[in-house]
Structures are given as C-alpha cells and as structure tokens.
Amino acid sequence: MNPLTATAVGKRYRTRWAVRDCSFAIPEGKVVALVGPNGAGKSTLLRMAAGLVRPTTGELRTFDTPVNGRIHPDVSFLAQNRSLYRDLTVRELTRAVAAMNDRWSADRVREVLGLLAGVDYDAKVGTLSAGALTQVAIAMALGRLPRLLLLDEPLSDLDPLARDETLRIIMTEVADRGTTVVMSSHLLSDLREVCDHILLIDGGRVQVDGDIEEVLARHRILVGPVAEESTVEGTLVSATRTERQATLLLREARPAPEGWAGTEPDLESLVMGYLRASRERRSSA
Ligand SMILES: Nc1ncnc2c1ncn2[C@@H]1O[C@H](COP(=O)(O)OP(=O)(O)OP(=O)(O)O)[C@@H](O)[C@H]1O
C-alpha cells in the first residue's frame, strides 16, 4: 500500500494555481526529497497531505484513505512554521502533545531527544534556538509513531551541527521503524545523504518523480562546442553557455556525439538544471 498518492491534485488560491494536476504515488519505506523553486507548491502539497488544506481538484490519499481535511493517524506533519506552544516548557509540551494523541510513545520522544546535545526539559519552548525548536518538533512528530512523516523544510535555519543531528534523527527513524519520509528542502547535498526518491515540482506540476539512482541514470550532461550544438540529439532540459562551450542537461542517456563529453549528473546538477529551465520559462512568459 502506498503511504501517499495524489491523483490529478490541484489547489487554487483565488485566481492562482499553487498546485496543478499533480499525480504520483510514494512507495513505502522511501525517503523522498520534495524539491522545486520558491513558490513551486511544495508546502501546499504537504499541507494538503496533512489535511490542513483542501484540494480544489483531484484527491490525495494516505494509506489508501482519502485525506478529506483530517490527518491520518499514521501520519505526522512538521509544518514550516513549527507552531508549538511557546509558553510551555519542553516537559510540559511533551505532556500536552501526549494528551492530544491516542497513540503516543513517551519512550520514543525521550529516545529522540536523548540523541540531541543537551535538550533542557525545563526550558520554555519560546526560548529555544531555531535548531532546538525544530528538533523538539520532530521528536513530537515521532511520538505519534507515524508510518509516514511529512517534513516541511526541516533543515532550514539550522547550523551545520544541528542539521547533521536532525538528519541523524531522521535516518535513525527510517532504519529503526522503516518510516516513509517526504521532506522538502533546498539543501540538495543534505538531501542526497538521506533520500532515495525525488519528487521535483515546478509551477505546481510534477517534473521528475522516481528513484534517484534511476532518474540520474536517465539523464546526461553533455559538454561541447556551442557551434556544434545542433549535432546533439535528445530532449534538452536546460543549457548554460560560454562563448565557445555549451553544457547541456538532457532527459535521455544517449551517447555523446564526437567532440562532446558526456557524464551522468549528480543530484545537485540535475535539480539545478530543472530550476534553470523553470526560471527561463518564467522570464520568457
Ligand atoms: N494561503 C495562501 N494564500 C494565497 N496564496 C498562497 C497561499 N499559500 C501559498 N500560496 C501561493 O501558492 C504558491 C505555492 O506556495 P508554496 O508555499 O506551496 O510553495 P513552496 O514550494 O513551498 O515555496 P518555498 O520553497 O518558497 O517555501 C505561491 O505562489 C504562494 O504565494
């Protein structure tokens, strides 16, 4: 059973579509990188999957149940604005969140907070650093023992050490419980460390969806003389050019023509290529 599926999902705010005709199925046990430029629709998609926003068209299902404005008991969502009760201490917050959830593991929360460098249970939530706040919020999300964890930019505002700790918490969760994770982020090198599946959206539409290794193997970067660009076959995603040299991202893994060097892209150059294409489309619209 797929933890999350979308069928022709769209969300319109007034006259503008934030998400448009999105269809995908997230396989169980995957760690999914949800990427795309600012305003691509990532948060809207996650908020719809968590039942906080209703789609204008189409349907989202979590564990084969229509979302319908309610979060599934097996799903936890970390919102971008980490909306926790700021006047409570960490200890009080833990009790309050436990009381709100039918299924709750205090041990799991303790375990996760124990992985972090010195979380002070008596500190007021509002006084925590951005990193500690995110980590406490993730611990609360894991206390529900989710089978699907939706994380909206869990790594933003974190210093490198806090980012590393947060990634370790997520990896430990996946290793211990096989939890499926969908996480949005702009930090591609961090995503590469933990993710095995990519969902790239742009302008509210799915551009790339699949196993990261397979997706990378389906693309090629070709570098060669600008003057001979017409000899290159295949679907061009985007290009950068100097006076003499062109660097092309192609959607198919075809052999490089003579005089061109072909390599498989890494995740960063693949996503950058799609973001570049998106910016060019927008500026020529
Ligand atoms: N509540 C809202 N009312 C009106 N427009 C909205 C609302 N929420 C999002 N939007 C618009 O929908 C589009 C998609 O926004 P969304 O926040 O989902 O993108 P995102 O990919 O998460 O962006 P970012 O990477 O900057 O966080 C944007 O144009 C945004 O301005």
CATH topology name of the largest domain, in short, is Rossmann fold
How many strand units?
14
Helix content: 25-40%
Poorly predicted ranges: none
Helix-strand pattern: EEEHEEEHHHEHEHEEHEEEEH
Q: In percent, how much strand structure appears in the residues?
A: 25-35%
- The tally of structural domains comes to 2
| Strand order in the largest sheet | 6-7-8-3-9-10
The rounded distance between the terminal residues' Cα atoms is 40 Å
Bound compounds, each kind once, are: adenosine-5'-triphosphate
What's the overall geometry?
Answer: elongated
Number of helices: 8
**Largest sheet report:** 6 strands, mixed
Corresponding CATH architecture of the largest domain:
3-Layer(aba) Sandwich
Give the rounded overall mean pLDDT: 91
CATH class of the largest domain: Alpha Beta
Secondary-structure content class:
alpha/beta
Q: Topology, please?
A:
Layout: E1 4-13, E2 16-26, E3 31-35, H1 42-49, E4 57-62, E5 65-66, E6 75-78, H2 90-100, H3 106-114, H4 130-143, E7 148-152, H5 160-177, E8 180-184, H6 188-194, E9 197-202, E10 205-211, H7 212-217, E11 220-225, E12 236-241, E13 245-250, E14 261-263, H8 267-284
Parallel strand pairs: 3-8, 3-9, 6-7, 7-8
Antiparallel strand pairs: 1-2, 1-4, 4-5, 9-10, 11-13, 11-14, 12-13
Helix pairs in contact: 3-4, 4-5
List keywords for this structure.
285 residues; alpha/beta; Rossmann fold; 14 strands; binds adenosine-5'-triphosphate
Provide a brief overview of the structure:
Helix content is 32%, strand content 29%. The chain has eight helices and 14 strands. Helix 3 (106-114) runs antiparallel to helix 4 (130-143) and helix 4 (130-143) runs parallel beside helix 5 (160-177).
